[in-house]
Amino acid sequence: xxxxxGINLASRALSAANKAVDVTGQNIANANTDGYSRQRVEQxxxxxxxxxxxxxxxxxxQGVDVTSISRATDAFVDARQRGDHxxxxxxxxxxxxxxxxxxxxxxxxxxxxxxxxxxxxxxxKDLANDSSDAAAxxxxxxxxxxxxxxxxxxxxxxxxxWSNLRDSASTLADQVNTTTAKIAQLNLGIAKAxxxxxxxxxxxxxxxxxxxxxADLTGATTTARADGTVDVSIGGSTVVxxxxxxxxxxxxxxxxxxxxxxSSQVTLSLVGSGDPVRLNTxxxxxxxxxxxxxxxxxxxxxxxxxRSVASSVNGIYxxxxxxxxxxxxxNDGTSAVSAQxxxxxxxSSTAIAGSSxxxxxxxxxxxxxxxxxxxxxPGSVWRKQVTDIAQKVATANTxxxxxxxxxxxxxxxxxxxxxxxxxxxxxxxxxxxxxxxxAAKVFTAMDDMLGTLINMVR
Amino acid sequence: xxxxxxxxxxxxxxxxxxxxxxxxxxAAQDQMSSGKLISKPSxxxxxxxxxxxxxxxxxTNEQYVxxxxxxxxxxxxxxxxxxxxxxxxxxxxxxxxxxxxxGSMDPSSRGAIAKQVQxxxxxxxxxxxxxxxxxxxxxxxxxxxxxxxxxxxxxxxxYAGDDSAEVTRRVAPGxxxxxxxxxxxxxxxxxxxxxxxxxxxxxxLGSGSSTALNxxxxxxxxxxxxxxxxxxxxxxRANQVDGYxxxxxxxxxxxxxSLSTVEDIDYAESSIDYNLQNVAYQASLAVTAKxxxxxxxxxxx
Lengths: 458, 301
Prior knowledge:
The complex is a heterodimer.
Chain A (H helix, E strand, L loop, with lengths): L4 H25 L9 E8 L16 E9 L3 H31 L7 H17 L4 H62 L5 H18 L2 E4 L5 E5 L2 E5 L2 E2 L2 E3 L17 E3 L5 E2 L4 H36 L10 E3 L11 E3 L18 H7 L8 H41 L3 H36 L1
Antiparallel strand pairs in A: 1-2, 3-4, 4-5, 5-6, 7-8, 8-9, 10-11
Helix pairs in contact in A: 1-9, 2-4, 2-5, 2-6, 2-8, 3-4, 3-7, 3-8, 4-5, 4-6, 5-6, 6-7, 6-8
Chain B lengths: L6 H28 L10 H57 L5 H22 L2 E2 L2 E2 L11 E3 L6 E3 L8 E5 L2 E4 L4 H4 L7 H14 L2 H54 L3 H25 L10
Antiparallel strand pairs in B: 1-2, 3-4, 5-6
Helix pairs in contact in B: 1-7, 2-3, 2-6, 3-5, 5-6
């Protein structure tokens, strides 16, 4: 052991304490930064490397050495957080789609379809009481047109909702592409840093932040590689491989709600290879479900109501099925009635007949009015569908709030591992401050001792 | 594993709790301001189902009341008309008795009676064609404007109504009440109807045959009974319609209160609920403000 090694030791201690204070400062500075993982100075004691012939018997260590600045993370907790986030984002998106449908139904309300149908049946009953009254006929025509218009509006609003959702699918796909590109870029930085033995903590934090965002969007899963980089796959296809990323695209067809069938759906695929990306989680997964299942399902229910209105009224109004003799028909020249094309096809109110020909028995009008009492009539078909949709909405809302709570819990778990606790940092700060002061004291003592030695020689 | 608590996790949790509290308060406020328990179907799927059903039932019952009122008017018109007819027939019968009893009556007296009878016949034709809202009430479902038509030359009156169906009013689920009376029933079938009886009486007055005059007395008795029977039927139907109308009215009250129970809020309950949510929210605000403030920094000097 040399005379001056003590000074060296003090210098190392000062440097270690200094670094520790710096890291504590970094932690405090980023206490509120999203995705930041707290860092720790990893230090180890240095021993003397002298097992030579003249090595003294009483050896003193060489002080302290800072080996690395580590990052407090737990891969398992991070993976769970990503999984919970993608489930929550999916449930939230689905609940959002349903919630829009919920508002669109406009029930129970004084101007909802139920009340419009009630008015329609009422008009027929009034006509039955006086089967030649022009005012009663006009009322039948008017209320019938209102029923058709209300059904058309429901369908149109659903179609608009679909188009908006289709737009958001494209926007989300763009976000996915931007995010995967960033992850690939950060992967490159991380690989370079780890290759040269540098500290890549900040890059890792940023990268994990983008991976979490991608999980939110698509339910992305990761595979870690030895150099600290990760490969990311979504829906069974790899989109980030080291420093390379692949873009995804939304299929160009179908372009409208009515174009969706079991064989024509909005899908995702990789640009270039065209490999399919099948999402069943994440926000984008929720959007695709809304586009392919939820909204087309609701449209079918609207269609069933429209068909029920047309067939039950026409069946009584035009029992013989005479061409051109129906009350309800379509406004687009096709023969299949849907919520989109339901229309009153009676030319004018004077053409409305509420009785058998040549009499005023009001039989037809009475039978149509009595549809309000039917347990299988249009009113009851619509009521069942509203209830059915309402139950689905309520279920989606519950699922969403449960998933949100779970996601919040896994956020808390991650925060528990990686978050910054100010109290803890303050304690560390004081500890390292004392360490620095003490190391300085050791240095002063060494200095004094050397001074004493030098003065002694003189 | 012991959960490490960080300042950020406290903040996140606090925000989440405040959000939940605020959402509950907003929901309570929404119900208070709209006065509705159900503002969209998912608020209460079962309640929505019931509400829609009640709304349909309310409109249907309102219609029963309207139809019953319309039917009652039909029947009231018939009742009044048949009472008038009945008194005319009684008048004719007493004229027939008068003509039959005084065998010594001279042709000029009989001519005077015949003039009266002719006037009454004209009145009867008018009464038989009484209309309500443009429809002859004794004409069944005829599309024409009269129940009986009179031949301008012979003066013979024949039934022009259409009895292929009855005029009915839906007054309860599946229950239709007939509100028309067939002219052929009340006034008699063509060839032997009230007007033919009057014509025979006129002929008898012309001939002065006491046998024929006595026969007319009997014929007016029969016609009178027929009209009275018609009156009884009309009265019974009016009672029926009235009963159903009262029933539908009562049901309407029940349904409206049921709908209100499902759709509308109970203000007392809702305002208590709102206040509870408000207190809870304010309490969590106050606690959060205290909890997120202090750290070790506050105590290191």
